[in-house]
Amino acid sequence: MVEQCEKNGQNVTTDGEGDEGHETTMGGHHEHGKLFGYVKVGTLLVVWLIFTGFLMSKHEKELTPRQLSVPEGAYRTYILPEPSPGSRIGINLKGAFLSDQHHNNTSTYVSVNLQLLYLPSNNSNASFFPDHDVKYTENITNVWMVPIPSTLEAIDQMDEITRKHVFDIGPVNHQKVTSGKAVVRVRMSSNLDGDFPTKFTYDPTPMDTEVGVIYAAIVLLGLYVLIIWEIVHRTFAAIIASTLAIGVLAAMNERPSMPKLISWIDVETLLLLFGMMILVAILSETGIFDYLAVYAYQVTNGKVWPLINCLCIFTAILSSFLDNVTTVLLMTPVTIRLCEVMELNPVPVLMSMVIYSNVGGTLTPVGDPPNVIIASNSYIAKNGVNFATFTLHMAIPIFF
Length: 400
Description:
Elements: H1 2-57, E1 65-70, E2 76-79, E3 88-95, E4 109-118, E5 136-139, E6 144-147, H2 152-157, E7 161-168, H3 170-178, E8 182-190, E9 196-203, H4 209-228, H5 234-251, H6 258-264, H7 267-286, H8 288-299, H9 304-319, H10 324-341, H11 346-361, H12 369-375, H13 378-382, H14 387-399
Antiparallel strand pairs: 1-9, 2-8, 3-7, 3-9, 4-5, 4-6, 4-8
Helix pairs in contact: 1-5, 4-5, 8-9, 8-10, 9-10, 9-11, 10-11
Keywords: Membrane, Transmembrane, Transmembrane helix, Transport
GO biological process, one term: transmembrane transport
InterPro entries: Cit_transptr-like_dom (IPR004680), Diverse_Ion_Transporter (IPR051475)
C-alpha cells in the first residue's frame, strides 16, 4: 500500500509537473503572441507617424489661375514665370471644353503647345519679350488638341470642365531653361469663329500618374493584407491606409487642401449606409430574419431545394433595400440552424445566399454602395437616371 501510495504520489507529482510545464509552454506562446502584437502595432504606428510628420512638413499645393482669351485667327502666348524643377510641365485649362468622348463630334479645337525662346542674355525673369529681343523660337512639344463646341451659342450653354495635360520638354531643353539661355512659352490658338475664354493654370510640378498608380496599388494591397490577415483592427487599418495615401500625395508634391479632402468624401453614401445600419439594427431586434427563415421552412414543407431557393430569394429581396453584407450576416445563423435540422451541409447554401445577395443588391440604387455612387453622380442624374429608371434597367439582367 505504501509503495502503491508512493507510486501514486509520484504519478500525481509527475502529472502535476507535466501540467505546470504545459502551462508554462502555453504562457510562453501567449507572451510571444502578445509581444508580436505589440511589435506589429508599434511598427504601424511608427510608419503612420513618419508619414504624418512628412505630410505636416509639406505645404498645400496652390496654383494661381489666370484668365486668358484665345483670339480668333491669332495666337495667344504666355511665358512661364519660373522654370519647373523637372522637365515635366503641367497645363490646366478650365472652360467650355468637350470630353475626349466627343472628340469625333466636332471639328473645332483649341491647340496648345510649348515653345522655347532663346534669349540674347540671361534675362529669363521677364514675363514679356519683344520679338526683336528673341534670337529664335523652337517648338519643343507636340500640339495638344482640346475639343470645344463649334458655335458661340453652344459655348454659352456649356458647363465648365477642367482639362489637364502634361508636357515633357526633355532634359536638354530643361537644362537650357535652368541655365537662363531660354524660357518656355505656351502658345494657344483655335479655329473658332470668335474669341474663346479659358482659365489657364501652370503646374510646375505635375504628378507622374504612372508612379502614382504604383504607389496607390501598394497602399491598397497593404490595406488588404492588414484586413485579411487581421493584423490590426479594420478601422485602424483604414486610418493607416488613408494617412499613407495622403502622405504619398504630399511626397509627390500633390498635397491636397482641406476643401479638396472634404470634397472627396461621399456624404450621400455615408449617410445612406448609416441609415441602413439603423434600419438593420431595428429589424434584427424584431426577429424578422428568424421569422422569414421559419416561414420559408413552413412554405416549402421542409423540402430541400424549394427551401434553398426560398431563402435565396428572401436574401435577394432584403439586399435590394438593405445592406447586403449585414443581411447575409443576420440570415446566416438561422440558415445554419435549419441546415442542422435537415442534416445539410450549410456551406453551399450560404454560398448561394451570398451570390443572391450580391445580385439582389445591384437591383436598386440603395442596394449597394457602388450603386449609390453611380446613381448620385451629377452627370448621370442630369441625364434623367432616377431611382425608377435605374431599377427598371437593372431588373432585366438581374432577372436572368
